[in-house]
Specification:
Elements (H helix, E strand, L loop, with lengths): L1 E5 L3 H8 L6 E3 L2 H7 L3 H11 L4 E4 L5 H12 L5 E6 L2 H12 L4 E6 L2 H9 L4 E4 L1 H6 L4 H15 L4 E4 L5 H10 L3 E4 L1 H8 L2 H17 L5
Parallel strand pairs: 1-2, 1-8, 2-3, 3-4, 4-5, 5-6, 6-7, 7-8
Helix pairs in contact: 1-3, 4-5, 6-8, 8-9
Bound molecules: erythose-4-phosphate.
Erythose-4-phosphate binds next to helix 7.
Length: 217
């Protein structure tokens, strides 16, 4: 399972990339606004930090302008993945970009039928938003399971990129289902490594080691 960081915070991305555990980055217009940075500049910088795909989202709502925006984004770096909204125009743009060999991430997916359309349009990734579904009383993970079943039924190559992840519980459930990618806030990636018993056990080992008076180096 691949891990993407869902942020436009360059310092956080650099820190996570240094662990060797980061496979890519996703951004969206809200995350860009939060960064306070120029969109094209910050995305280009992120592309230089990570080798994997960096999703950058178009903001046009019509196909012709989406294609123009995609051309600008594609020119930033070879690892750009053009993020498109799950609308008819977004799917049309996805189909056209896929034909040109461009990586695409179809975002704002909230139903299995939407995911089916994205796969038919040749999307590289489909981004179902589990947290936002949970927020309105739906089961986000049920959607991931449905998409997994449908994609496997037809051998679609589109990767399931679980988005709107809010906690390690989402990551575990997504991994059990066999989702391809989870994109998460840096805080959730770090939470995955944490366990109270690990901290307690390490403290005990170090205390006992200190009693030996020895040093490895
Ligand atoms: C990822 O591509 C999405 O933009 C992101 O995961 C949305 O998360 P949110 O629902 O926490 O804003």
């Amino acid at each position: 399972m691949k891990f993407f960081a869902d942020t436009a915070d360059v310092a956080e991305i650099a820190d996570l990339a240094a662990t060797g555990l980061l496979d890519g980055v996703t951004t969206n217009p809200s995350l860009i606004a939060k960064s306070g940075r120029n969109f094209l500049e910050v995305v280009k910088e992120i592309c230089g930090i990570v080798d994997g795909p960096v999703s950058a989202e178009v903001v046009a709502t019509d196909h012709a302008t989406m294609m123009k925006e995609a051309a600008v984004l594609r020119a930033l770096a070879p690892n750009i993945c053009v993020k498109l909204p799950l609308t008819i125009d977004g799917l049309k743009t996805c189909k056209a970009l896929t034909a040109e060999g461009v990586k695409t991430n179809v975002t704002l997916c909230f139903s299995a039928n939407q995911a089916l359309l994205a796969a038919k349009a040749g999307a590289t990734y489909i981004s179902p938003f589990v947290g936002r579904l949970d927020d309105i009383g739906h089961d986000g993970m049920e959607l991931i399971q449905d998409i997994r079943t449908i994609y496997d039924n037809y051998d679609f190559k589109t990767e399931i990129l679980v988005a709107s992840v809010r906690s390690p519980v989402h990551v575990l459930a997504a991994a059990r289902i066999g989702a391809d990618v989870a994109t998460m806030p840096p805080s959730v990636i770090r939470q995955l490594a944490g366990h109270a018993l690990t901290e307690k056990g390490l403290a005990a080992f170090l205390a006992d080691w200190a009693k030996t008076g020895q040093s490895i180096l």
